[in-house]
Amino acid sequence: MTGVPLIGYLALSILMFCIGAVGVVIRRNPIVIFMCIELMLNAANLAFLSFARYQPWKPAVGQIPTVNAYDVRGQVMVVFVMAVAAAEVAVGLGILMAIFRLRDRVDVDDLNTLSG
Amino acid sequence: MRTTYFQQDVLLIILCPIVGFLIQAFLGGIAKKKLGPSSTRNLFGFMAVLAVAVPFVVTLRVLTNFGPVSSPLVVPLAPWIDLNSFRAPFEFLIDPLSLTMLLVITGIGSLIHLYAIGYMAKDKDFTRFFTYMNLFIAAMTILVLANNLVLLFVGWEGVGLCSYLLIGFWYKDKANTIAANKAFIVNRIGDFGFMIGLFLLYCLMSSKAHRHTRFLSYDVLRTSIETFHNHPAIVTGICLLLFVGACGKSAQFPLYFWLPDAMAGPTPVSALIHAATMVTAGVFLLNRLSFLFVFSPVACGVVAIVGAFTALFAAVIAFGQTDIKKVLAYSTVSQLGFMFVACGAGGFSAGIFHVVTHAFFKALLFLGSGAVIYAMAHNQDMRNYGKLSKYLPITFICMLIAFLAISGIPPFAGFYSKEAIIGDAIGNQVFGGSGINLVTVAGYTALFAALLTGFYMARLTWLTFLGKEERWRSISTDHSHHAEAVPTPALEVQDAFGFFASEPLQLEEEDHEELTADHNPKEVPLIMSLPLVVLAIGSIAAGFLLNGKLVNWLQESVQTLPFHEVSWVTPAGITAGVLGILVGIAVYFQGLPQKEGWDIGKWSRFRVWAGSQFGYDKAVTGGACASGNDIANFLSSQFERWIIEGVLGGIARTAKRIGDLIKTTQTGFARLYAAVILCGVIGLVGWIFISVRGGF
Amino acid sequence: MNLLVFAVLASAAVLAALGVILSKSAIRSALSLVLNFMLLAILYFTLHSETLGVLQVVVYTGAIMVLFLFVIMLLSTQGNINLTESRDVKKIVGGLAGISLAALIGVQIYLPLASVPAPQFHAPQPIGPSYGAPEPLGLALFTRYGYPFETVSLLLMIGIVGSIMLAKRRVR
To answer: What is the pTM of this model?
Structure first.
């Protein structure tokens, strides 16, 4: 999408990340907190992809730009982030289920048995 | 080529007992469950003997390949301590001295293992016994084969450990564990001296600009004569400190008193460890370092005089003992004293000669006494014996041979070695000239101790095997209660005939069968009498077969000081032995004399005093325990209260207070934590913004 | 024109994100998140990362969000899932913190970018014919990034086993 500067994507990424962070702090529902974390992870993904797209690259003289010449590091990183997010969601929701079995109500502020 | 050839043999000699030890230790218990006690006994007993007999055969092979005149051969096996400035590899030395010791250890060791199969047959911890025995053989072979003092120390500590384990073998009886602890602790005192001596030697050697980094190896040490020559005072110190170690291990005077208590272990152990092999390690050490000792006449004089005093002292104590094994224990201490006299006189190889012959006849005496104890329902009090020659003919003949051998009657083994020792001591040239000196005095003392040897051994023989009455026939409850009044503590709790109690106290209640008036002693089985006969042959033949030859052969590895022949030593030695025996016969011909009878009150004061080791043991042990107690009390009352409670407790309390303070921040609210993290991130980014980028 | 489309997409995404954290009902939050993810997928397409755009739809909106919704449904039958969010100081503090964080990072990124005259930061770079296609991505994953890839797969497997263990009822 020509005409859009890198800073546009980054601004979106920053905003999503900060909204997610604020959500983690202000919400009491653990499921929503999880969603906020997903939001933050996706913000990071967006940043990765936009940096990958905008990264400076100069082909050597006479070299035809081929697939291998392009760096796929950004995309690989996003794949890994997705996998880790999936694992995190699976375990996190499993924990939530286990807690729900013991309590009627789930409020992260009630789960303070670890207080010193 | 030659080295690699010997490498395999040395490896075999050392690994056989180790493998045997591992098999016994890890498979013994399983086998007992799967196979039952009887076949386990046959199988594991056989394996235990094999683990010692194979090294014996291999040693014989090495001996034939080594030849009579070869120079010492260093066999390196593996690196161990490998530093820039110092190396002590696993290296072994094959020379006449180590081969002699190896033959004694493995040869007599395998005989005693064979005997122990019979002796320990009914013990439920049969495999545990052979585990320790094989481990002992392994440690002992390392000790004698080691080519450096550090490796020697490994074996040295290893045999000490096995000695401790075997003395306390019947650990359920508290007296046995006390005896084991005593042996171990007293040995530690000796080892302390040994270690300091070792460190001193290290300092002396490492301060020299030396080409070698293996400077604690014998082959290097032997070539450093110049260093020793330049530092006579340090060499004397090293020698004396190492001698302290030797005193501990070989039960010499200041540290002898663990050995008699060590008789608490099973009799084969007493024979193998506390008579034939381990206790000679001190003599061996002095022989190994003979090139060091010859530089220090003072150390030699001390060695000789300590040895002579021990020989005399222990011989006198032997008269106060009624326990047959105790008599033999003091006899061992006394004979070890003879060996040290030889070392002190510079006749180191004569000491080894006596080690060899003594190994034969003392092992025989112990095994014979084991047979007697076995036959007499585990009663060890000689006052209960008498006329046993009728019941135990084989044992009697063997014991008689050993008795003559130890008394120094030609042509038995002890005569040759003892004569060599006394001759060396009286004709010594340690201090240069002839005349009377410390070592000569030691020689005369040893001669007198030889007379006493004949005397107390005659006492033992007559009280046990000869005499006019079978004294246990007249046994009554009266007597057996008096038996407890012996000045030495009763170490083994006796019970059923032929039964070896792992749980003496419990069995005592179940089927306690004391030696009674209608007891009929039986001769021991073949597996036990066979080693007796072999050892008896050795006791006869070892002396004149090895006389002169052994000493010559050892010249390659042991340095000796010259001495002048004293023509009257041989007749004097024979006279002393014969005289001692004759006096003994005269006193004990009737059996138990009235004044040595059951009533200790009627004993002569001196004899009672001697029986209690002149109060030495009590004073040392009691004093050490009391002062240890005082220190412990002081520590528990003062140190504990002020230092531990005050300082350490204060630190703990402070930490707790700080912890309590910090604890309040741990609210347990996950969202608060998240908020804090968020604030942290903001702070961090802001810091980067301001300090790294320098603001806008 | 492109900028305008991007601005619309981006502001929609931000609004969806705000919807996630501001809506009272968890289901509404989840649906807002789905919308956000869909918009993100479109943005990935605009970045020529077609494979990842598809993955975004399939994995996030298809799998993860369904899992979220499933859990919400499951739990709302048992108890009150709509917590009454009290008005406390945390909300204000959190909001302020979020704004300041956004401002800080934004400034941090904007200033260096603005100071670089090179055009590549302001316009996308020329790309090869198969940029964003599955083939180079898969090639990279299985060759150069084989070790982290396997590690991640191990992580996923452990996550699966762990969540099964957590979620299954204890048989007594």
So the answer is: 0.66
